[in-house]
Description:
The protein is of the alpha/beta class. It has one domain (42-302): Purple Acid Phosphatase, chain A, domain 2, CATH 3.60.21.10. It is 14% helix and 23% strand. The protein has helices at 60-65, 88-95, 121-127, 162-173, 201-210; strands at 40-45, 74-78, 106-109, 139-143, 146-150, 179-183, 214-217, 223-226, 242-246, 263-267, 272-278, 282-289, 295-302. The chain has a seven-stranded mixed β-sheet, with no helix packed on it. The longest helix is centred in the middle third of the chain and has 12 residues, at 162-173. The chain is globular and about 45 Å long.
Amino acid sequence: MSNRRPPQLRVLGPTLVAAAAGLAGCGGGGDSPPPAPPSLKVVAAGDIADCSGGAPSASAAARTAALVAPDDAVVLTLGDNTYPVGAHTEFSDCYHPTWGAYRSRTRPAPGNHDYATPGADGYFGYFGTLAGPDRRGWYSFDAGGWHFISLNSNVDADPASAQAQWLAADLAQSRDALCTIAVWHHPVTSSGLHGNDPKMATVLSALHTAGVDVVLNGHDHGYERFARQDANGIADSTRGIRTFVVGTGGAPLYPFPAPRPNSEVRYAGDHGVLRLFLEADGYRWAFVRAGNGSTFDSGSDRCHR
């Protein structure tokens, strides 16, 4: 018998999604099972607010912000929230008029452009406690029966680091959660212009060992989906992590010069967002294009932790 916690949701802003599983009916015949809890809708993208070409309303960030729906309960940003240097004015003058409409629902991660301002002061000043405690840039939360881990790939993540020690404790404390998703900026494996970045490789290994299901990254300005794989990029259909690179929030898009093993889908034809439908024991995904709101890539999988 599974000892995982029942699906739940903490309040993440003006949108409330209630999910209660396993509630038996009272009286009557009792022949019908209780209805399945609704999916928790999550939307994600990185590399977002670039207003160098004109007004915020004319930016690609405005086009991707328009894709966020009222029932997207959680908005995940995957780093490089503003360009070029993560300044306070970039957050107030470009991010806020676009993606800022969803700030109360947002759970952000920082990128290297955010840290171009010392201490990522613009980033932490704008998001405040939404970016986690103590301006360290890593934190976790639970929603819809899923455990979410947001990490900081701009600071030390080696095994002896404060971040890695915190992660080990968090994974141990959340081991009853069947489904887990982790996000940060720099992908360990990417077919994009930046390519592979090993700085979070030991973190990825810890997540794979713990049975984490999904990793979301940004940094490379395109959309890429990988098949389940281990921390070394070896296909693992049983306990592998499915990784998405979603650097399509608004910054100029990049080509894919070097396709990597297990890369299943690559797209840099338009900006867009990844929408996830998180369920009690699995998830569905859809990459939605900004140009016409159409779905370019979709699929589903089961959790395995």
